[in-house]
Amino acid sequence: xxxxxxxxxxxxxxxxxEDYTFDNVRRAAQGFASYLLEQGYAGKxxxxxxxxxxxxxxxxxxxxxxxxxxxxxxxxxxxxxxxPVIAYAVVDKKACGAVNITASHNPPTDNGFKxxxxxxxxxxxxxxxxxxxxxxxxxxxxxxxxxxxALKDKKVVYFDAAEAYTEHIHKLVDxxxxxDAGFTxxxxxxxxxxxxxxxxxxxxxxxKVMEIHNERNPSFPEMKRPEPIRPNIDVGLKxxxxxxxxxxxxxxxxxxxxxxxxxxxxxxNQLRVYALLALYLLEVRGERGDIVKTLSTTTMLNKLGxxxxxxxxxxxxxxxxxxxxxxxxxxxxxxEESGGYAFRDNVPERDGxxxxxxxxxxxxxxxxxxxxxxxxxxxxxxxxxxxxxxTPFSGDRKNxxxxxxxxxxxxxxxxxxxxxxTVDGFQFKLEDGGWLLIRFSGTEPIMRIYCETTHQDxxxxxxxxxxxxxxxx
Length: 473
Fold this sequence. Notes:
Oligomer: single chain
CATH superfamily of the largest domain: Alpha-D-Glucose-1,6-Bisphosphate, subunit A, domain 3
Number of domains: 3
Shape: globular
Structural class: alpha/beta
CATH architecture of the largest domain: 3-Layer(aba) Sandwich
Strand content: 15-25%
Number of helices: 16
Radius of gyration: 22 Å
């Protein structure tokens, strides 16, 4: 029986050489090719790109060979390319979709296979199910053209996606003002695709950009994984203080997510960053439009929505839910708890580079340091506190889900439970407007327990109660 390839919240991820093999990548590419042909895209162009993980460029070539053999044409990136740049290339080249070989923030042992639609955004859940259904059981059923033949026939064309994206960025942000600001900016691209981007975009002015972890190293030293949260970013936070930098910008392995450290070397968690970016667009730029958030991100967005009279939409976790909702509502901003933020006038895809530039522009336009921007936010919506625990679980998932439903807690962390939402996982609403969410990962055998509250002293108690409800403690 062939290994069954399953798409989670953001494509398929697996362990290199265990289940993530060249043959299985080719099978996944055949499923995507068949899906595109079903959609009427025969003869159209597809973007294929990759990150800096082990053998990513080889896996990308394998996907390109399969797509070309199925009557599609392929633009293949000429090197490791950030996910938002690949996504923008879909729109710029009027392609029908993309394959992106990346495991984003996963451990170094993993790689992944992301697929994108003609908007450059995540494919909706129904589309992902159809791709899964079209994946052949055997690699013998996969069509394949050797790369040298595909290049000769111009069925595969190498290209540099950076130029069009860079031109696009200049239309969205006044980079000259950031260059002239005289900032010292520390950048941690986490050994990934974001390396060199802020340096290149902000060169030629008074502002100085310093980078660490900016070479290719698929083992990701000095961090557990290239995910922009602590403890992975501790080296970057320390470097921020040592170099007296004004801010730390962090991009994850494929540069679609963004993390921020303040001028004191303290991490600004991703829920606060999302609220800050929304405040920047609403208050500083004076823009208006819907906000799309996953249920695992901050209620500060709901409060901003009321203050600025804009609708706020809540979805399940993952950009396969966020992207379609952003397109439907022409949303101003969309995002999730993991540090992924997407913006109107860009593609409906997380963009860690644009998010970082917007944060810098927020500092320029207000003349405020990151800590002062946080105070500006809290003056409007109150202080909110967040934390998350990831824990492996054993046994049958359905039994554990039933255990969570049967728990029916009246209080969590000393706060009254006011409701239960089961859109994606189990979210217990709390009397202070906060919440506890218990959710199973779509890509790993892990249970995630998250909370947000206005009571700093109750965060640990809420998480502890969450572990008990889930049968872990």
